[in-house]
Write a structure and sequence with these properties.
- Helices cover about 35% and strands about 20% of the residues.
- The protein has about 150 residues and is an alpha+beta fold.
- Strands 4-3-2-1-5 form a five-stranded antiparallel β-sheet.
- The radius of gyration is 34 Å and the shape is extended.
C-alpha cells in the first residue's frame, strides 16, 4: 500500500484525537472549577441563576438564591464560579466600573423621530393614503350585495 492512500485516514484520525483532547481538557477545567467551590462563594448556574454557595457535598451543592431561599443543585449544574467583585457587581449592582460620562441610549425609537422644530410648527395636513372617498362614492351609487342576495327576482 502506498502512503499517499493512507494520508487522508491519518489526517482524519489526528483531527479526531485533537478534538477529543480539547474536549477532555475543557471537562477537566470545569471539574477543577467546581472543586474550588467553598461556602460563601458566588456562582452562576447553567440556567443563569446567581446564588451563594452554602454547603458543598460530593454530588450536590446547597445554594442560597435569596435570604432564606435554599436550593439543592447538582454540581454539574454550576456554570461558573465567580470572583467576589464580579458577583457583587452583577447581583448587587455595585462597582467602580460604571461611568457617568457615557451617553445614555434610549430604549425606544423616540430619538429617531425627534426633530429640532417645536411640536406646534409641524405640518398639520396629513396625506390620506386610503381610498375612503372612492369607497364612499361607490356606496352611494349602488348598495353592495351580501352572500345570500342575488340579482334574480
Amino acid at each position: 500500500m502506498n502512503i499517499v492512500t493512507l494520508l487522508p485516514f491519518i489526517v482524519l484520525i489526528g483531527a479526531m484525537f485533537l478534538m477529543t483532547r480539547s474536549a477532555k481538557k475543557k471537562q477537566q477545567q470545569a471539574a477543577n472549577m467546581r472543586d474550588q467551590m467553598q461556602p460563601g462563594t458566588g456562582i452562576r448556574t447553567i440556567g443563569g441563576m446567581y446564588a451563594t454557595v452554602k454547603e458543598v457535598n460530593t454530588d450536590t451543592v446547597l445554594l442560597e438564591a435569596a435570604p432564606g431561599v435554599h436550593l439543592v443543585f447538582a454540581k454539574n449544574a454550576i456554570g461558573a464560579v465567580l470572583d467576589d467583585d464580579e458577583y457583587n457587581r452583577i447581583v448587587h449592582g455595585t462597582g467602580d466600573d460604571l461611568k457617568v460620562d457615557t451617553p445614555v441610549v434610549p430604549d425606544d425609537a423616540s430619538s429617531l423621530t425627534e426633530t429640532d422644530e417645536p411640536a406646534d410648527a409641524s405640518d398639520d395636513s396629513r396625506i390620506d393614503l386610503g381610498k375612503k372617498d372612492e369607497a364612499a362614492e361607490a356606496d352611494d351609487a349602488e348598495p353592495k350585495k351580501t352572500d345570500g342576495e342575488s340579482d334574480t327576482k
